[in-house]
Amino acid sequence: xxxSALIVDDHPLTRDALSGLLDxxxxxxxxxxxxxxxxxxxxxxxxxxxxLLDLGMPGMDGLEALPLIRAxxxxxxxxxxxxxxxxxxxxxxxxxxxAGYLLKSEPPERIAGFLRGVANGExxxxxxxxxxxxxxxxxxxxxxxxxxxxxxxxxSARELEVLLLLDxxxxxxxxxxxxxxxxxxxxxxxxSLLRKLxxxxxxxxxxxxxxxRH
Length: 214
What we know:
Layout: E1 4-8, H1 12-24, E2 28-33, H2 36-46, E3 50-53, H3 62-72, E4 77-82, H4 87-95, E5 100-103, H5 108-119, E6 124-125, H6 127-145, H7 149-152, H8 157-166, H9 172-179, H10 183-197, H11 202-213
Parallel strand pairs: 1-2, 1-3, 3-4, 4-5, 5-6
Helix pairs in contact: 2-3, 6-8, 8-10, 9-10, 10-11
């Protein structure tokens, strides 16, 4: 499948470099925009599979444009590509509907790989960003949901998040949509979760969680 992409960055040299990278890895670059306002119009017209969006642009910046791009072309996945790894920008981008948050310091091959994953229904987070976000999920989810340390310290942050969503009686498809990942990825997390908790079913995992809470 050829994945179509719209590149949004106010620097022509950056757009040229990204266009060459994506073309080299089999993507079809259908358009380029130098501002948030232009990106919204092109997204509405071109309906690309992926919008690769910079944050730091004059006028309407990427964070302002992101939800408007999503509204203009709901089927397009928006991936932020920025030099800013601040927590505020990361959380704002996720709340705005971003399917990924990548740093420009990533090797070009990894950027292309992340975008291919997004086209297949996965989320894309640079390693540094992923660690920071998942640490927050682990700490915040553990405190807010009363997850005992005996469980929180055994599983990964993402597995803990999956366990808490299972505890809300969500199915695999619902969890996948909530976490912006594929159903296959959710099943992999569940399998690892069951192994680490030494149980053989989701029901037993939830029973283990309930027992640990009492």
